[in-house]
Design brief:
Helix content: 25-40%
Distance between the termini: 35 Å
Shape: globular
Low-confidence stretches: 4-15
Structural class: alpha/beta
Strand content: 15-25%
Mean pLDDT: 93
Largest sheet: 8 strands, mixed
Number of helices: 8
Amino acid sequence: MSFTDTPTITPKPADTGAPDVAQLTVGILGGTGPQGGGLAYRLALAGQPVVLGSRTAERAEESAAQIGLGVTGHSNIEAARRSDIVIVTVPWEGHAATLKEVQEELEGKLVIDSVNPLGFDSKGAYALRPEEGSAAEQAATLLPKARVTAAFHHLSATLLTDREIDTVETDVLVLGENRADTDLVQALVDRIPGMRGVYAGRLRNAHQVEGLVANLISINRRYKKHAGVLVAGL
């Protein structure tokens, strides 16, 4: 992942009716991948304290140095330990193993699962159905003492990492069991210029949200774009 020169962006002012999340440290597990690194860049650019996690601290340190903006890199365990909010961006194949590794560090913390269980064959991408129902529900099963939510599924890593783009205009669907927790996630989303957090139901609704990424991949391949999701009439 490479980043060009950093643009000057004024952080979006917080909605006076939204929770204040500006001082909370956000840890990104799997932060060396394109989506995780892109989210780290956008959040750090908005003034959010961010730490990157990876299976190896050295790789996370290298990625953090490329991003700059005060981002630091650590092992996944150490990133989880240092964070108030954790975003899970690991590949689906490593989802369960990563969460089992950081169970203790995530007790009582707000976890945002952004993983999309997908398969690929000669016909393209298609949604997988985990035994628990969705990646988010698997996270809730593996992290019974954490506050699991789901969000950030439909973002283009290409747009997130492009430093010539000031804003990423998209809605982010937010799911969870506790409205106070989903409000916090929406407030975090709203810190990023162009993004809007939209409550989309409980975790039992996560499968179709995660699976929609397969449709977006088809759309983007057909039209050679980086389409996301916008909710009309809201």
